[in-house]
Amino acid sequence: MRPQVLIIGCGFGGLEAARALRAADVDVTVIDKTNHHLFQPLLYQVATAGLSAPSIAAPIRHLFRGRHRVTTLLGEVVGIDAAARTATLKDGAQLRWDQLIVAAGATHSYFGRDDWAAHAPGLKTLDDAFEIRRRVLLAFEAAEREDDPARRAALMQFAVIGAGPTGVELAGTLAEIARHTLPGEFRRIDPRQARVLLVEGGARVLQAMPEGLSESAREQLAALGVEVRLNARVTGIDAEGLDIATPSGPERLASRCIVWAAGVAASPLGRALAAATGCVLDRAGRVVVEPDLSLKGHPDIQVIGDLAAAQSHAPGREPKPVPGVSPGAKQMGRCAAANIGRRLRGEATQAFRYRDYGNLATIGRHSAVVDLGTPLGALRFSGYAAWLFWLFAHIWFLIGFRNRFVVLMDWAWAYWTYDRSARVVAGRGLSEASPASGARA
């Protein structure tokens, strides 16, 4: 009987691990809470009506249709028994494994204020993207019908909390929608008067990037009309707006459409692993792994992607934390698969080494920043050239030719017309749901 490899999660890490096991003499089961693999770097474009959901998602079963040793299942793992080598699903069913790869990913972190989630949705799934898109579009619809100037202003003031890549991309795109896509479609309001606020508790945007590129990003955001509020710590969020603490004192910002992009937390499955194996979790709930990505005392369990507090072990260098980005997850997936092959052959496993290819972030039309690692040193640039590089890099890494073609055509149409083709809100109408009601698209 061939060894059974169970992969929990089919994000970037889980998908790459399953692909890398193609030549191994094992049976693979891939289980995920959704039936699709999601290209998360472009999820914000679904949230802002630039792309439709199928353009950045692919059915998991379709991805493995020709792999007869790969079984795909739809389900949620809630418990792990390391001694019995079984995983328990939410419906009570159990799956047996000989080798386990946990790639369950991450979720939103509201820093202990989960009550804020109802008023400021995050962006991790297609459901999140549909909800944000609904709130944005319905805010303009409600403003068109609002007679009170103060309430109309609150409806047309959008706040994005957190100035990492997701926050920057969301804020820049919202400004473009207000200034280029919607003008001429309303009679009582001018969408160009909408305000987009980017609220960041730190001293600069895109803090993972060099200071020069960070400042360039801030300037490009300002040119698009985004108001960047730095050193502004959020202290409260409710249905009418948010409270922030600034160096000059507390301030109230009225907004009926708030998006959370400020923090992430590891999947709750990390706690289940800790209970089953005694592994250590870091402050974000990530699982501290060994150099080869396995758990201490449990070489048959590997944790990869956003759930892993992993370090890169380059020869002759001090270990460095691996950033929570898709290239890191993919590389961990390949490493985990290779180490399974080594274990089955009786060979020693190898430590994970992360190769940093750089960071990209787009801000809007003709605006982006790029920080690349090359053999000759860092290559950093911004503006139009960076925007073109970002565009073609994301087209290249999309899953499937159809998705690449459709996204390229949608982007080309949007570039020449400023139109955003996915501006459809389904479900309850405006008379039954306000932008912050929590209704689903």
UniProtKB/TrEMBL annotation:
Entry keywords, A to Z: FAD, Flavoprotein, Membrane, NAD, Oxidoreductase, Transit peptide, Transmembrane, Transmembrane helix
SUPFAM superfamilies noted in UniProt: FAD/NAD(P)-binding domain
Matches recorded under Pfam families: NDH2_C, Pyr_redox_2
Every FAD/NAD(P)-binding domain range: 4-316
EC code: 1.6.5.9
Top enzyme class: oxidoreductase
Family as reported in the entry's similarity comment: Belongs to the NADH dehydrogenase family.
GO terms of molecular function: NADH dehydrogenase (quinone) (non-electrogenic) activity
Residue span(s) of domain External alternative NADH-ubiquinone oxidoreductase-like C-terminal: 358-412
Gene3D superfamilies to which the protein is assigned, alphabetical: 3.50.50.100
TM helices/strands, residue ranges: 384-401
Signal peptide residue numbers: none
InterPro entries assigned: FAD/NAD-bd_sf, FAD/NAD-binding_dom, NDH-2, NDH2-like_C
Reaction catalysed by this enzyme: a quinone + NADH + H(+) = a quinol + NAD(+)
Name of the protein: NADH:ubiquinone reductase (non-electrogenic)
Keyword Transcription: no
UniProt keyword Membrane, yes or no: yes
